[in-house]
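User:
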Amino acid sequence: MPSSNSVIILSQNTVASNIYVLKGSATVEDYTKKSSPANPGVGQELTIMKSDFSSSTLQFSSKITPLTDFIKTNDLFVKHNGDSLLNSISGETTGSGSIQVNAS
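Assistant: Predicted structure:
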């Protein structure tokens, strides 16, 4: 669960789990313990495909990338002025949390 300082968007469907960090950070772990926990921070996202769990060497850290333009068109992001939030805290990495992702 993210700390009170973190702002994240979590999107899940039958194919993928996506975590977008707008403020703070998150610790992401899987139930299978195939991967070490990863810590995406401000302006980063983590996308895990269901097929990624078939690998015995899944590394969440290799799945962390800068936020894509896709999230910036998300209704939640737009309605809550996500661009303004990101611009106001550029470079900030405070907060942490824990989210367990189960793509099965």
